[in-house]
Each structure stands twice: as C-alpha cells, then as structure tokens.
Queue: 4 jobs
Job 1
Amino acid sequence: MTAISRSAGSRSVPVVETDDWVARLSTPGPGRDAALRQLHGLLLRAARHQVARMTARNPTASTLGAERIDEIVNQSADDAMVALLGKLSTFEGRSRFTTWAYKFAVLHAAVEVRRHAWVGREIPLEQSAEPWSSGPTPAEYSEAAALSAAITTAIETVLTTHQRQIVIAVLIDDVPIDILADRLGSSRNALYKTLHDARDALRAQLIATGHLPSARSAAAR
Amino acid sequence: MNERRQNLTPEVVRRLTVDPHPWLSCDDCFRLVDQYVELVLDEGALAGEQMPAMRAHLAGCAACREEAQTLLALAASDRGLVANEIDDAQRVLTN
C-alpha cells in the first residue's frame, strides 16, 4: 500500500491508494496481468457510467440500442486502456490512481456517444444571429429583450465571421465542440480558444454599452 | 426567423457572457480534471478559488463539464458518498 499527501489549501489531504498501480502495471509478470484485468474493469465501469448519463439526458443519444451501447462501452474502455498505458509515466499522484484512470474512459465514451448522436446530421454554419426575446414578466421581458438585442448586435458587429459561426453553433445551437471540430478538421482546443476570444470581445462590447457590469464594479458589489 | 432562436434563454445568455478567464485549454483541463474533482470533494467551493482556471474552463466548456461531472460522480462513489452529498459536490463543480 502506498500513501501520499498533497497540499490542498491550509490542510494536507491524504491520498491513499489501495495498491501501487504504477508499479504493478510496469512490472512484467502475473501481477501485471492481474492489474491490467482489474484496470480494464475500472475503465468499463467508467465508460458505462458516462454512456448511461448521456443517454439519460440526451434525446438523440437515448435512441442508441443496448447492443450499440455495449459496443461503445467496450470500445471506449479498450481505447482508454491504450491511452492510459501510454501516459502511465505521467501519473504524478495528484489524485487517486483510480480517478486518474477513470478520466480516460470517460473522455473516450463521451466523444463516442456524441459522435453517434450526430452521425448523419448536418451542421449548418450560420452567419447571422437573429434577435430573441424571453422573460415571464413585463419587467423581466423588457430587460431580457434589451439584453438579447444587445447580444445580437454584439455578435453581428464585434465577432469575426469564424468566431460568429463557432459561437452560434456551439453556444446557441448546442453542437458539441468535439463534433464541430471533427467536421471542420479542427481541434477541441482550437475551437475553445475561438470561443474564449469571442467571449472576450462580446463581454467588452456589452460592458461598454452598459449591459454587463465591468469587472471593477462587479467586484465592488 | 429561425425557429430555434426565438428564445434567448438565461442559460444561453450565461454561455455567451461567462467570463472565460483565467485561460485554460481543453487539453490542460483533461490533465487537471482528476485533481480538481478530488479537490471539490475535499474542499467544496474553495476548490474554485484554488484552481480558478479549472472553474472558468468548466463554466465555459460544456463537453469538459459533462465529462467532469461523470468523473466527480465516480470519485464520489469510490469515497462512499451518498446521493445528496454527490449532488452538493456537483453543484459546486458546475457553479
């Protein structure tokens, strides 16, 4: 058994592993084979959990049949196993090994469910944001409508065409960022940077027009 | 008018205007997310103060947030937390 500690603010939080996973997975022999089987079981659990959460919440994903779900779970666990073992030397003990391991299966399963949910669906890249309105009461309606109009204007005037297309697809039309990246031959990182820069531009414009508080006035409240 | 855009919901307003700083890439979010969910379980809302870039990224990236929520549920389950405790931790993660 190994026990390590990491600093978390003012107190030290013990992180206790029930086994030395890295050593077991790195040392050839029957111990490694057993560790690999145990690890694969953990990855299956994590992948199954991710798929279950997404199929419960996403109407499109919920149409996946039991057989397809099993395929996704098993393939995700297998792919996660390969990815994890390739990164084993980077595990620094900043979390439990099991938590570190789960994230590989969660990522692979999530990407695969999103991919299946969007197979055959077109993603039209909109150039223009149209005005919206909402709000259950007259006062809220007015405030929401003013904010909506301001946001629409900001989207039309301060964003580049590329930023506008990505913002509308991901933030308004709910296209998953990894699906859009795949269709555009881009990457999740690159599209998130586009969103980051677009939000900066939108916020600056909305602060300038008085629709959002400045960082200074927000901090003073 | 495109029917999908007749309502600007509070959630869409939040997505469009959330403060994206400090900057963190999706790759770095993946590298740190196991540490962050355990910090949330250990420290609650203080986790966001200790790792503000993770808090900002999860507020602004739906895909990373969706994956972090599952990871939190798995880590919480391993600790033997019960449903309402996990729900509390999920609220911290997504606020």
Job 2
Amino acid sequence: MTGRARAITAGLAALLVAAACTGAAPAGGPTTTATAEPQAELAAVQELTVAAGRDDYRTDGKRNLTGMFPLNANIYETLVTLSPTYQVEPGLATKWEFRAPNTYRFTLRSGVKFHDGTPLTAKDVKAVMDRVATAGGGTVGVDDKSAVVVDDLTVDITPKRTNLRALQQLVHPSWGIHKAGADVVAKPVGTGPFRFVSYTKGERIVVERNEDYWGAKPTLQKITFRFIPDPNTRVLALQAGEVQVAVEVPRESAKTVAAGDLRLVTSKPGAYEAIYVNIRGSGDYAIGKDKAVREAIAYAIDKKAVVENVWQNNAEISQTMIPPGILGDAASTVKGTARSVDRAKKLLDDAGWKAGADGVRAKDGKRLTLEMIVGYPTPEIHKPLPEFAQAQLKEVGIDLKIVTTPDTASYEKRLASGAQGHLWVEAGSQNDGNPCFLPELLFTSPVPGGDDEQNMYGNAFALGAKFDDAAKKCREATGVADVQKAAADMMKVLIDEEFVVIPLAGTFRLYGASSKVLDLVAHPAGVHQRWDKVRIRK
Amino acid sequence: MAAYVARRVLSLVPVWVGISVLAFALSVLAPGDPVRQALQQSGIDAPSPEQVAEMRRELGLDAPPPVRYARWVGDALTGDLGRSIRTGEPVLGALAERFPRTATLALVAVVLGLAIALPLGVVSAVLRNSALDHVARLGALVGASIPSFWLAYLLIIAFAVQLKVLPVAGSTTPQHLVLPALTLAIGAAASLTRLTRSAMLEELSQEYVRTGRAKGLRERAVVVRHALRNALIAIATVTGIRLAALLGGAVIVETIFAWPGIGKFVVDSIGARDYPVIQGFVLFAGTVVLAINLAVDLAYVWLDPRVRLGGRARGN
C-alpha cells in the first residue's frame, strides 16, 4: 500500500461506509476464511474479475515472469507446492527423494499435458532449470548442469552449491514449469488449471479454464485480473460491482468490506510485524547490548493491544517471527512474551536503570532514550505502531524517539551506515517453505566479502557463534521435522533467550469478495493463491 | 521568424545538457541498490554476491559514473535510453508506449479546464462583484483547495459506486477517461478561472478598452477580440506550465484510476530504484517541458507581435 493511500484511508472511511451501506445491511457482516456453499445454485456464466494490485511482471525474455509472479494467474504449476499451512506438498511431482549429498530426485505426475496438448516430461523441467540458470540461477542456485533427465518422468536437480533447502524453495511460483521452447513472453504455456488468453501491460491479464486439466477441472470459465494499484480504488471497484474480488484490502477498510453484499475473506498469518533490537551498536547506539533493556522492551509492549488497535484485529498475536505454521509442532517451543509492566520495570531497576524526575530512566548519567527506525518496507504500513510503542515504553521509563525513513532504500542506507538506530520495525512475508531463510539472512554473523544484505543486518543484529550454529543445523537438516525443530531453535535464541527479535503480530491477507463468490480460500502467501476452486452463484 | 525560432532552439541546448547531468547525478546519489531490488522482484529474495555481480555487469553498473554518463548520453542521442531494471522493457519504448495515455489525459483535462475557466473568468470579470462573480470565485477557491486524490474518490463514489454511470478505473473505453480528466480539469479550471478573471480585469481597465468603447465597438468585440486576446498571454503561460506538469505524469490521478500512463510507471520505478527509467524519464520530461516552453514562446509571438520585434531589436 502506498504511503499516500494509507494516509487517506482513514479519512475516507466515512464515505466508503456510506457508499457500502446504501440499500444494504448494516456493517459487521461475515468475515470468513472459506465460503463453501455446495447447495448454492451457480450462475450460468462463470467469469470472475479480480482487482489485483500493481502490474509487477517482468516481461523481458530472460527473466520473464508473466502470469507467474508476483501475481499468480494459475497458468503454471511447480514441482512441489506450498500448502496454506506452509507444508511442502506434491505438485507436478508426485514424490521426491533426497539423494546425498546435494540432489533431489523428482518423479513427475504422469498424464499431465501442457496447454498446447503436449505431455509434460522431465525435459521440460530441465529446460526451465536451464533458463533460470541463464538468469543467475534463482534462489535454489542452479546452473546448466543442475538438472539431469533420468527418464521421461524422473529428473534430478542438484544446486551448484550445497543447498538442502532447495525442496522448500522450489514451491515458489517463480519456479513454475513451462513448455520447453515456448515463447514465455508472447504465449505462456503451462500445465495449470487456467490457460493464458491475453496480457495488456499495466491493465489486465486474462486466463480461461484449461479443459484438459489433470486435476479437478475449475468451475470458473474465465478470470480477468485487472491491475488496480490503489487499494482504495480496488475496494471502490468491488463496491461498484466492477470486480467480484479485490486483493490486499487495506485493514482500515476491512469492516466496510465485511458489510452488506460484500464479505471479507482472510487467511491465516503469512506475514509478520516485528521489532529487531540493535545489539552491535556503538556510541549512542550501544544501549541495545544491555540484555535487560531488550527484555524489558519485550515485556513492555502489549501485543494484544497492537493486534486490536494497530491491526484492527486483522492479525493475531505472534510469538514467532515468521508464521508459526511453517514451524509445525515445533512452533509451540517458542514461548515469546506477554505484557508485564511490573516485570519490565524490575528488569530495568535490577540492571541499574533508575527513573529520573521526568520518569525517564538513566544509568551512569545516560538517559534511556531509544530511536525506533520505521520504514521497511514503507513507514505507512506500520502506522500507528510507533506511537503506540512510544506510549507503552514510556510507562516503564523508556523514552522512544521515532525516526521515519521514506522507503526501503533509505531505511537500508541507515542500517548499512553503522546501524544508526536502536529499534528497527519491519514487516515481512513468508513466500516459500524454507523456515531457515529469514532468520539466517537477518541474524547470522557478517562474513567479509559475503552477501551485502546479510552483512548489513548481521552488523546490527548478529548474535554470534551460538546462533550461527543453529542456522547451520537448520541449513543442513534433511527431514521435515528436523528442519522445523532447527528453525524453532533459532527462534528460541532470538526471541526467548536474547530478546533480539520482538515479534508483534502475524498478519492476515485480506480479500474483499462479492457474496456471490464461493469457495475463495485465502492462502497466507498471496503468490500461492489458487483460483481453481472458486465458483460464482446466481 | 525562422531566426527567432532557431535562436530559441539553440538556447535550449545547454539547458538540455544540464537536465541530463542532473538526471544522471540524482540517480547516482540516491540511496538503494537497483540490482538487488530487481533480483528480489524476480523472486530471488536473497541473491548471492555472484548473482548481484553478474547482473551489475550485465547492466553496465560496474563502470565508474563518468563513464556511465558518457555512455548513457551517447546512447540517448541515438534514441536508446537503456532497459528498465525492474520490468526489462526498453526505457524509450516503455515511455513512448505510456506517453500517449498521459498526453490524452493531460490534453483532455487542460482543454476541459480551459472550456470551464475562460468563459467563467471572462464573465466573472465583466460582471465584477455580481452574484455570478461571487459564485465563480467561490467555486474557483473550492476547486483549487480540494486535493486531487480526495476529489478523485468523491467522483468515483458519486458517479461509479452510487450512480453507476461511469467506470471506477481502467482505460479500455472512452468512458474510462471521464473521471480522471474531470479530476484534473477541475483543479486546472479553478486556477485558470482566477487567472482569467484577474487578467481580464487588468485589461478591461486599460486605455485601449476605453478607446474601443468610445469608437463605438460592440462590447462583445471589446471584451473578446481586444481584452481577452491580451489577457491570453498570461493564460497561455500558466496553461503551458500546467500542461507540461500533467505531461510529466499526473501520478496520483493515474494511480487512483489505474490509468496506465507515464506518471504511475515512473513512480513505481523510483520505488524500485530503476535508474535507467528515472534518468530516461527526467530527460524525456525535461525535453517535453522545453518543447512546450518553446511552443508557448511562439504563441506569445502570435498573441503579441511586439515579442518578436523585441527579439529582432536585441539581435541587431
């Protein structure tokens, strides 16, 4: 959501409500995660128009992602898929096998045909891997030798560097399998439930039902995704009946959308909001090295109030940084914190931070004043969290200054320039099945000559050898449960032991839909959204 | 006249070079790494140093800034503004593809604005302090004060959500043009009405107007053929500035109405630190502004031949 759009949303609320309520039921309609109505009489014409966000497709031949990512038009399918609970499930591959030291062998589903009628074979998978190799190798890190055709329906994939998380990464829609040799720019050919019809840059992409789909054939005959970048306009288009579904509804408009003939469809948490504490700062930014201060902050912030007031109940309290679903049963081992002002005060008292005349604590002549940096990915998305945190930290004697950076680039520049700030607020999304990725990227020790982004974060937040070991275990685990446990162990160090990460909320994905739209189930990660079960009633 | 035009064109060359230096310098000095953002947009959340280095080489971003500037300007003069890092499109093609949409919106908005402002401003001046004058001034004040995004949403709610007579957003039919053009036109009309009124009041107080009336010219001729023509110099200047600004992209209105014009494209590119697009756009928009200024200067000559004579006198 753009900054301007976020800013005007609150001001528009009354008008939007007025528009929504004309001749309709009062606000407060159903909010749902699924809308199964098997007995409903279906409309004769099953054509859906969706208000999607900005057109962010790359359209050059080498890295073309039209219909694939970030808007997944369900033209392509991946070898493995990501379930709404963040588990890896069969896709075009029915089974897979890890072959030490660094290879995954995939067995392809038989009888799958591309939209042009030709059968899917291992050669097509290899062609995709080879194409990604020419564009740098993707997240998995493939080169032109990575994919080896074993037989028509078996393919081995060996990343060019050791990468045991390749399986979890291959669920990402950017690894969608297209027909070998197809012109992916002009005529995308995949195996998905919908086939490409047309794409008009900045305006729309249209797909139609794949009559020969290998799975359950979709009820929808056609979907038109219209690119409408402004979230308020998407809601208005939904209210006007121009579209039947609007993606990424702003949380301020959620109640309006849930009213009358419309409904709000929400996902489980797929994104998060968290505070990271700078533990490697120097000079004025060294306060975060004091563990008592970090722990006190974690106990001072009321996550329940954040969910209710900042996220307007379109989120749930989070004790893990990434969505808990990806950690499976191991998620419960991460305890997190619940608000306790008394405990926070005691921690600070015991650490020698004494309250001054104005209520702000000080130690050795240094006031407990912290800077909170707000700007990733935009400052607006966090509003009014900073002011909220400011008030809550004041109660325990911490003076919080809010520093807003206009965008990600400015935020990262500040982070890279000596990590100028104590608390860093970020929102992130989990788009693949790799639970090790984000904690490893953000909190492992910097490596000379290593990845710039990893080092930028490591210079502010890295915990050292203990966490690096945990990250290594996560990276090298093979079984699903082992990976989840290793990732949970990383979370425990970050959240329960060192208080470097203070998770606040696991946020929902919000779709607005006409009440005639049935069986729209919101995936926590929008890039994995499926449309093949959706139906339209009369 | 030809010499006057040639002189004006030549005077624009150093300005154009200045714009190119500025465009390039701004992009170099801005924070952020376009390569990393582009890779992340390709679905690579954590690109490896090798991937970053390869793409940097591919885009020529590994060369020092002066070398990149020389290459860029050289290519620009041959019509090659590079490729968008974000979308992979050729920049000139991307701008050229979107510019007609923006130009259509801008021209319709300005014409519509003038169609409202000229008669209203003239009548308001002629009937100074009448009820109509007060209403026109109030309307102009309100029109100039309403933020365009607010007006846009109001128009959508009124005409698309409530009355359902116009579409909310998009660009596929002529009807899609109405609301965004009206949004921009109301803002333009407001300021142009005020300007027309004040310019007309000034002209109507001139001696030549009194002379015209004394000679027995009809009031309509005095107002339209004499006073208005002279008032048009100021109006043309402001109209040119406003048109140039709109041709640079009416970002907010284009975004709200999902109008796939140049403004929305460039704002998205700024967010992604898409240097080639930002540089190309600044150069492109700068060139458009220079061209419009030239056109306005030439309009002055038509409206007031003394401008050209003055130029000759200076040339002698």
Job 3
Amino acid sequence: MQQILKPVKRFFRKYGVAYAFIAVPVISMLLFIFIPMAISFYWSLCDFSGIQAPRFIGLDNYIKLFTVDKIFIQALKNTLLFVVLSMFIGPTLGLLTALMLNQKVRFQGLFRTAYFLPVMTSMVVVSTIWKMLYNQNGIFNTVLTNIGLSPVNWLSDPDMALISVVIASVWQGFGFETVIFLAALQSIPKELYEAADIDGANGINKFFSVTLPSLRSVITFVYIYGLIGSFQTFDQMYVMTKGGPVYRTTTIVLYLFDKFQDLRLGYASAIAYVLFFILVILSFIQWRLPGSKSTEA
Amino acid sequence: MTKKLAPIVALLLIVAMLAGCSGSAQPAATEAATTAAAGTEAAATTASGTTDTEPVTITIWDYYGEATPVKPLIEGFEAENPGIKVDLQSLDWNTTLEKLNVVLAGGDAPDLVTIDMTWLPRFAALGAFTDLSTYANGELNGVPLSEAYSEGAMKAMTYGNTLPTIMCDFDTYALYYRADLLEAKGLTVPTIWDELEATLSKLVEGDQYRYQFLADTFHGAQFIYQNGGSLLNDDNTKAVYNSPEAVAAIQFEKDLLDKGLAINWTADQGERIQGVKDGRIAMFSDGPYYMGIMKSSAPEMSGEWRVAIHPYQTEAGSYLGGTGLSIPVNAQHKDAAWKFIEYMMRTENQIELYKTAGAAPALTAALNSDEVNVEDPYFGNEKVFSVFLESMKTARPFPYVRSWSDIDASFVTALQNISLDQMSVKDALDASAAEADSFLSQQ
C-alpha cells in the first residue's frame, strides 16, 4: 500500500498546486461549455418546449429541417450567400486599403484609426444607423433622387435586402482586416523586395510573388475568423430587417432565435447543431489546408 | 509563504466559481456573503412561507415600463394585506418575453406577470400558466366574470375550459383619420369599404395623405374579418384565410395599394409617427395605446385627428388583444398573487390604470366610467373610448393553437409577397394556408 501511495503523494506534492490552478478553467469549461453542449445535443433529439418534459424523438428534428422546413433551407441559402458575399468583399477591400496605407501615406495613423473605428462600434449601433440611411426617405435615396436616379427600396425589395445588409456589415468589419493586413505587410522583410528589384520585377510581379505569398498565413487567419463570424451573423438582420422581406434575410442564427422564442428548444438545438457541424467541417478543412498556421508550426 | 498560499488561492478560486454556479439569485444571500448552506436555508423559508402567519413576498414582472400602473397600487395593497410584500420588477415588453421563456423552462418564475395577449396561444397550449378559474370561481371581486367583461374579452381570456389570464387592458383596432383634411375637402368619415376607397381617392394628393398599409396579421386579419371571413375554422383545425371572402378582402387592400391610395409601410419607411407628422399618412388602423404615442410625439397635431370604427364590408371587425395578468404554473405564492390580481382589477384601480399608463381598462365598468370615457381635447373633444369599446364588441382574439407563431409568420410572408408584387393574392394565400394546415396537423 505504502508502495503505491508514495509516488502518488510525491506527484501531488510536486504538481498538486499546478493541477489545482488548471482545474479552474477545466471545471469552468466543463460546466459552462461542454456539459451544456451535451445537454443541448440531447435536446436536439427531443421534442422539448422547456415547460413540459423532453420527449425523445430521435433524428426527427434534423429530418424535418432538411425535408419539410422551407424556411430553414432559405435561411441556409441566405447565410451562405451572406458568407460568400461578405467574405469576398470584406478581405479584398481590407487588403486594398492596407496596400494603400502601406504606401507611406501621410496621417497613416489617422486613417488606420478611422478604418478601425466601426469595428469597435457595436454592431447594433451600426445597424441602427444604417437602417436610417436605408430609410425610403433617408440620405441614400435623397442623394439618388437629387442626381436624377430612382430611389431604391434598400430593405424592402426582396432582391436587394440581403445586399444592403452585406454592405453595412462589410463597412463595419473591413477595418479589422485592414489593420491585420497592414501589420502583416509591414513585417515583410525589405530584403525580399530588394531582391525582386534586382531580378527586375515590376509592381505586379512583386505583389504576386512576394507580397501575397508572405501574407498566406494571415489570409488564412482572416478567412477562418471571418467565415465563422459571418456564419453566425445575427445582429444586423435582427435590427435592420427582422429576417424579412419574405425571409430573404433570415439567417441560421436568426431562425434559431425565432424558434427559441417560440419555445421549441429541441428544434432550436437541432439548428444550433447543424450550424456547429458546418463550422466544425470548415475548421477541419482550414486545418488541413496548406499554409495555415497549424500545418506550418 | 507564497508557496503555502498558492493552494489556498487555487481552492478559493474553485469554490468561488462553484458558488457562482449555484445560481438561484437570492439577493439577500449574495448581499450577506454567507455560505451556500445559509442560502438554501433562506430559500427554504420563503418557500414554506405560503401560510398566512409568515409574511410572503410576491414577485411581479411588469412590462409597462415607466408608465407602470402597478407601482402606485403597491402601497395600498400592502396596507390591506400586512402579510404580503410586493417585489416589483420593471421590465420592458421584449425583456419580459425573453425572461419568461427562460424561467418557465425551469427557473425562479415570478408570482405574477403581465403578458401580451398575443403570447397566450403558445404559453397556454404548453400549460405554462395557472388555471385561474379555480381561484375566480366565475367571479372577480364578487362580480360575475361574464358581467365584468365583454363577450370578446371573455373569449380572449379563455383557453379550452381554463382561464390562463385575467385581462387588465385591452387592445382593439379603430380607424385614426385626419378630420381637418376631410373637413377641408367636404368629405365625411367612411363607414364601409366603398366609401373608404372613394374618400381616399379625393383625399390623396400624390404621395401625401394616404392610408397606411401594413403587411402584418393584425391588419390582414382585420380586413378578412370585415368581409365575413376568418383565419382558422371554428375548431382551429384548418386555415380558412384563403376563402373567397378572405381573398376578396386582401384583394381590396392590394387594390388600394395599386391605385396609390395606400402606402406600403415596409421596414425602411421608419416609424409610423414620422409618416403621421410629415403627412404621408392620413389614415391608419391601430389600438387605443397609440393615442398616447400621438399625444407625446405629435402634440402640435392636436385637434387634427379623430377616431372611428374602421370601415368594413359586411361587419365591423378587429383583432382583440391587450395585457393579461398571469400566474406562472411554477410560481410559489399563487394565493397571494391572486389577491393582487383582484386588487388590481377593482374598478377604481382600473380607472387608475387608464390615468397612469394611458391604457384602455378591460373591465367594462371602468371603461364606461366618467373618469375614463371623457371628451379628449386632442381628438377634438371626441369620446374616444366609446369607439374602442364599440370596436371590442365585434373584435376577436387570434386563434389559440400551439403553432400560432408559425402560422402568423406564414401569413405575414404571404402578405409581403402580395404587397411586393411577388405573388397574386389567391396564390399567396393558398400556399400559406396549405402551409398552415401542415403546421396544424403536426402540433
């Protein structure tokens, strides 16, 4: 007995305090993340209102989501379209502004701050302001009519609403990408450009052969971070359109929220898990992608 | 020293964290910073305190916000019931709904909560509220319920054979119109649809002075009722809002839009009050609560507006809603909460509700009282509540079915499709009604 206890005692004397400290985040993760996740997964297999006891129904919720529920399919489409549009425009705009700011312009700090300010502003505030700008009698339409164009139904035209929301979201978010790209650009060794000059490369050559490859890991970071964020988008739609018109701006998370409000917790959990699986698959792909941080390390 | 301290610090962190998780937000317990054991003890005593001997504290959630009609009543209630203390929590409409969803799913439910009657389908179907008929025994403060309330109000408060709520203010729609404009053009108030269209065609000037069209169930249902239609059939098993009467009703609205007599008030039009002030809207349909908004947001328009029964085709019709007082099924002090309901529903306190919150009292006696049904100078000395009381007589609540919010959303989508020229009236309503039928069969 003593024989066994001795190494255990020694272990605790040596590492006990360390493990006690580790226990704090581990237990809190268990309590606040992993256990709720497990419960939520169980609920996703149940018909559960929160008031009455959960009733196990197997995969019915998931089957219903993908076969019967047209709104969910629409929400999935909207979310994908939102992700594609905002992930195409946002980082491109961010890279372009970063390249411009990197040209040793005057007041670089001022511009950097200006571009970053919207990022620090709450999305709800930004959305409220943009909702006013998009108003049928708002600034945009006033300008349009004054220069002789017809006004646009920014948020009530089913084909326009999502694009309007994307514009507002990109405006709010691309400063983040600008700052990240700018930092990365400034850390590219000058020697590389000098070597390229000696090899007789022009500006375009330098961009594609030096700048872009050096930014590879940063680009991957920006995309993964942005993808996860835009898949979870909610605030803009909640404030500006409430998912309308005719569900054309309903996103996965907004739909989940609606179902939660309607006390369909099982169904809402199933939606949450569909989103979770999408994000897991995406993260897995990026993890295996060449050039990502994890494979380089 | 530091070495000895480290494990203690680590242990304290864990304990603090676990204590944080124990949840039940007993403010007294946290304030005293006592141990977890003391906290549960305190909870136990309040739980057993339902007997008359020990004082109980009832928690009330009130969504009226600043204009709370509940707060002024507390002092008098506590004086009359020495054993009961009131803990009033002022929330807004949204927060109340969100918190209610959470606590009904297993938390510290309040003893009494103000609810929007449109929440009732979901909560009543799930059995979230105590059946108050066992407390009321058909009476409220000694007056039979059927006498205290109008027929429509009784219908709105009843779910199956149960009474999940007691209505304290009501909401029903009437026509708000610019009397000054009508007078200037020598027009009279329209009472039927044809007159509405004729009046509008003389009233509207370009994009000014139009009727406000809203693609929502409140207004869509109103037109359907006014043409003798309904949303669901009598036993709530099938959607009938694609019946010929209903299609004709929505078509009438659509025609007003197409002829430029109505303005499609979409999300990007801003708040209605802007349209009221800048003249884009000269007529709209809404409940009594909007009178307060007009008085506070457009005081300069005093005297220009009046209220009338909304024009109809075959019969007057409106949705019927309002605020109800409900006791969650997992509340701890139901007897005390019922006492508060009765106190709040006394006629004199119902009159106070009008004075403090500007809401329309649901009790017929209070509504007809001289204090409430006064001549309103803002509306040209019209007795406005008579109009809403008249409107309540034919108003009806939305159907109480579990899948109501799905049906509601589907109907709104159909109205949006129609008003945005995406689908024809018949096609959109047919498609939505089929969808509603599948929701009804699944519930």
Job 4
Amino acid sequence: MNVIEFDRATIEIGGRSVLVDTSLTIRQGEFVGVLGPNGAGKTTLMRAILGLLPPRAGTIRVLGDAPQRGNRDIGYLPQVRTVLPDLRVRGLDFIASSVHGERWGVPSLARADHIMIAKTLAAAGAGDLGARPLAEMSGGERQRLLLAQALLGEPRLLLLDEPLISLDYRYQESVIELVRRFARERNITVLFSAHELNQLIGALDRVLYLGNGRAALGTVEEVVTAPVLSQLYGADIDVVRADGHIFVLSRGRNVEHADHMHDDGHGHHHDHGHHA
Amino acid sequence: MPTICTTTATAIITIMATMLEYDFMRNAFAAAGVAAVVSGLVGYFLVLRGQTFAGHALGHIGFAGATGAALIGVASIWGLVGFTVAAGIGMGLLGERVSGRDVAVGVVLALALGFGLLFLHYYTAFATQVTALLFGNVLAVDRSTIATLIGLAMVTLGGLAAIMRPLIFASLQPELAEAKGVPLRFVSIAFLAIVALAVSESAQIVGILLVFALMVGPPATAQRLVTGLWSGMALSAGLALAEAWLGIAIAYHTDWPVSFCIAMLSALGYFLTRGSFLPRWKAKR
C-alpha cells in the first residue's frame, strides 16, 4: 500500500518553487531519509504532507486521502522546536498536551490515554523523563521525549524533521536506532530528514534527495551518484565511496558538512545551546 | 506549648474579627479575593507563554481607556475593560512572532500612555481618582463593584476554560499544535482578550501600574515550585489569593498602602523561590 503519493505535484512557498511537477510514491513500512541542501524544501515537503501547505498543482495523497491538518495517523516532530528556556513544566504534562490538544475545553485525559502515554514513554526509553521539568533536560533527553510524543497514538506515518540536529554523536545513534526499531516493529513509514547521509545508511530503505525543485527517490546506490546529485545541487558534485561511507563533495569540499556548519538556510532558529 | 498556640490562634481570630467588623474591609477582602484568583489563573498562562510584557502593556492601555471613559462620563472600569479587550485583540491580530510582538507592543504601549495623558489633560477634576487608577484603591471598593468583579471573573474564567486545552498545546508546542489543527491565531487572540479582562480586574485591586504583582509574581513563583500544569495553576491562584489577603491585613495594621504590601509579598515570594534559600521541590511522581 502506498502511504505517500505525489502525482505531478508542485509545491511553492513564498513564490519560490520547492518541488516542480514531481511524482513519487512511498510504500508502507519504508524508512526514507530526506536529504538535500539547505533550503531545498525538506521542511516544506513535510508541511505539505501534513496538509499545512496545499500543492500549487497536481495532487498529494497521504494514506489514501488528501492531506488534512490534524491527521491522527501522522506522528510529527517539527524542526523548529521553540522551547522557552525557563519552561519548568514536567515532561509528562508537556507531551500530554498534544493528546487531543486540538479539542476545546478544559484538558482531561481518559485512563486509556494515560496508559497509552506511559507505555509509549517506556517503549521509547523515556519513562524517567515524565517527572522532570523540560528546562532541566539535556538536548538528547528532550529529543527522546519529543520522539516519544511523535510515537503517541500508534501513528502509521512518522515525519521527523531533523531529529538529529544539535545532538552529539552518541545521542544521534540512539535516536536513529530507536526510530528504526519502532518503525520495524509496527510497520510504520518514516520520513527522516537529516544533514548527514552516513549515519542513516544502515537504517535507510530508500533516500529522497531534494534540490533545485526536483526530487530523486531511490536506493542509496541509485540516487547518491555524481550525475543525480549534480543536477539536484546545480553544481558539480563528486561522490566518493570509502569504507562503507559516502562523501558528497563539491570541488573537494564536503557539501553536507558545510551545510551543517551554516545551518540557517531556512530562516529558522534552532535550539543549539543544549548539547547533552 | 498548647497555651502559646491557643493564645496565637485567639490573637489571629481577634485580629480577623476586628478587621472584618468594617464594611470596607469585608469588601476589600471579597474584591481582592475574586481578582487574585482570576489573576493567578490567567497569569499562569501569561508566564507560560512568555507574554508578560503584553500583560503589562494591556494595563497601560487600560489607563487610557479608564481616563478616556471618565472624560466622557462613563464608569472608568468599563473604559478599562473596553480598551484593554480591544487592545488585546489588536495585539493578537498584529503578529505571532515573539520579536515582532515585543516591538509592536512597545509602540502601542507608549501610544496608549500618551493618550491617557491627553485625556487627563482635559479631565483635571480628580487627581485622587487617577492615583486610584494607577496604584489601586481596594479599600474604597463598594458592593456594586464587587458584583461587577464577580461577573467579569465568571466571563474571564469561562473563556479561559473554553480555550484551555488548545491554549496549553499551542503555548508549549506551537509548531506541532498547528499541524494537529489548532487555530493558533484565534487561540492567541482569544487569550489576549482574556488577559485584558483579567488585567482590568487586577487593576481594580492593585492599580494599573502594579498588575504584575498579581498576574506575574504568583504564577512565576508557582512555576518555580511545581512542574505539573494543574498543580501549578492551583498554586498560582492560591499564592495570588494569599498575597492579596495578607497584603490587605498588613496594610490594615501598618497603614502602608495595600498595593505596596501586595507588590512586596509578590516580589518576596518570587525571589525566595528564585534564589537558593529554599531547596527546590523535586517532582516525585
């Protein structure tokens, strides 16, 4: 079954085309890494799938229907995570706010909801975080909590927007491992955007590279090649494979690394100051 | 020991009894109680959202509304309510980004104070009324004002209850809330209108310039002490109530202005919990 279908879809944001006339399909249970230069539209793609940005032309189908805000089958971890530095709300209340958070009235959760939250926290290895205030968590702990939140309510599709950003290497590995294990066990489709391909290679089924209004979807062998990436980046790109790692180079410089260093291409502010 | 306890208890009861013999004291306790609970609850979200500056500005805007109303012969509380609610909605419409909001709020705040001054310029009659407006005069509250305060409190808390769930979600995680279908802008506008009502109430007790004492001090203190949302709200309302009542009692015995006593208690509570004087309560559950 196809979880995501783009049929000649064009997505624009602020008058700029992010995707032009793009068709692609992503099947159930696939783990897809979303990569590409800054400003290529990784976040925009996810927002379109969430129904926050209707396509300019063509159609998008998500789990068989047109994208719709508030789709319960989608778990989402946004890239811009505005956490107030002084936020002393405990982790449990923080993520519980997302459960039926769109309903009016005074918040109240059924017993079943409480059990579901506790189970998901435990499964994500975040059981100990529920009682701690957000302001006292490290970046890695906060990310684990947010990941657990994205997994609440048995989603069938996970959209994770740069979940590795501002985490140190050790936590990055554990985040990837957690997502992969969860997705495999429950046959969840995952879109996982990142700057660095190499860490994801072991977890990926396919990779979706974005750039220059185009998208290339396929296995790493098919997509991460000099001709395909040169077209997407609009520059001469070399792909060097060494010892199971892949380096994407432009005139000898590591493109992905350079991206990471200047990570403000989206005009978003990241939560950089909280390394574990 | 038991004799000391009994003596203290008797002394407190006697003091309370003497204070409550006076009509104006009963009114003061009632009015301050209503306004404090509303301020503590609404203020909790104001602090949670990092919008305390907006709350402050609404008070200043209310000043223009109150003086303007006095100028055209309307009760100043309705000028206060009308202006602050309109301004709250306007602020919500102006923008969502925090940085932009701060600048916009600052500009509107200065403009409102300017208007307040202009209205005062033409309305020179009662300087005492202006002082009451700016710094509060809870000892002069009459029964009809209490009825108005209770009515306003019901509207304010009713509104807060209606939007509470999406408000919490949108305050804690705006990006996710948007994706899940929360109308961020509407929630933001509705909340500022609710804040405006709470500011109008709080201003009746501590005055426009000291609304922070009831709307920011207690919730900020509560958020330092407990990390649960419900416990935080309850503690915030409780602290506001305690500070307001204790402030009136201290004022009664010292002859200091009530607003000063409340502001002092509010600041004291905050700095006590802020500093390392007290061990922080770690959440145990």
